[in-house]
Design brief:
about 425 residues; Phosphorylase Kinase, domain 1; 3 domains; globular
Amino acid sequence: MRELRLNGQGLRALPAAAYEHADTLELLDLSGNAFDALPDDLHRFSRLRILFASNNRLTDLPASLGACPALEMIGFKSNAIAHVPADALPARLRWLILTDNALTTLPASLGERPRLQKLMLAGNRLSTLPDALRGAPALELLRIAANCFEQLPAWLSALPRLKWLAWAGNPMTATLEAEALATAHACAVPAAALTPGARLGEGASGVIDAATWSHDGAKLPVAVKRFKGTVTSDGWPDSEMAACLAAGVHDALVPVHGPLADAAEGAHALVLGRLPDGVRALAAPPSFDSCTRDVYAADTHFSASIVRHFARQVAGAMAQLHARGLVHGDLYAHNLLRAGERVWLSDFGAAAFLPPSQPALHAGLRALDVRAFGVLLGEWLARVPADGAQALDALWALQTRCQEATADSGPGFDAITDLLSTP
């Protein structure tokens, strides 16, 4: 047996029968139980790569994890973890999820895990990161939203491979978020003016329903996103709402009419423009194996012209966000919705205002979005058939420049948009 899922069974101890698969088990899921500790002999699972134990009662990350020889992915969301022992982090650690816990500090050993690519820390009580992380060679995605940061570490945007960063919902941007939410109440949509429709979708931060808005004598098709009100892997729903409302109007952004003016749900719902029927995400989110890379259907191909067209739309939307003091933080194909030749940038769960007290970091933080754009562009160019790939040298050169962007070098999105608009 390679996978064993024991979710939601009220377990307080690992069943002895699990050890019958100690030589073959690669994934163990203990989420939704009543564990307050895990066994000291987890190292017996010699091939265990992935361990989930979310929604349990642990207050310490189990030290026994550190002795697991093959363990790469650890998920302990929504426990009560306040302590991470230095030796609890396995040598092959690649993906660590500690969202929604009670952490105030992290061990320096976190910076001594050279394969670490993805670190999820939203919804804790952190005000700093271990200085040892400043040299993390592989870290590409970091979530520190909904914590207690008064400032970002000065070295953060200089991490060599960082591309996706979320920091909203911390004291350093609280005033800007509150102002965006307060200003938006002037354009709130009355709940009584909406006729509800069918469910359109559901994500980590909320559910989206179709509706018809009776407005100025017209009936407008809209979508209503109701936030779940709890911390997600990206941060607080209110932070996402604030970023959406501050993003403004652009052809490649999902239109936002305003918050829903309802006494029960007004602070946690947005009325959006409804996109065309049949709109689909360009890719699926990263898998366990791909870690930080989206998963495309095997038969996905793009023409050279559509790559340029998509890239120009996305770059234009990103240029607007950056001009408004926002960073998206999650620029991925799975957050791009496509209908024909049009794309819309969606999902502002990781979006954040630039920290006003740290202007010296702004260029570096914007450069992270540019690097993420470089990943996108590379994924699309790699899917142009060989017989249609002529004259892509300029786009590949742009892709390289974007992936290597830093605070001091690399194009901004205004320059990228201009370049892509040139025949």
